[in-house]
What we know:
The protein is mainly β. The protein has no helices and five strands. β1 and β2 form a beta hairpin.
Amino acid sequence: MASNPNSSGFTGISLAGRWECGNCGATGDGWYDVADDELVLHDENGQGFEPDEHDCEA
């Protein structure tokens, strides 16, 4: 899992299509969209959100 120092606590996105927040441990579906050059994240309920909109519980 790669680390991204510019994110809000995310430890990164796994190859299995999951993300995890390094601060609060939240997880969900996530992947990198090469075509749009952006991260695509969904919370544990399947709702999409922008990476900087993560409501961190930490």
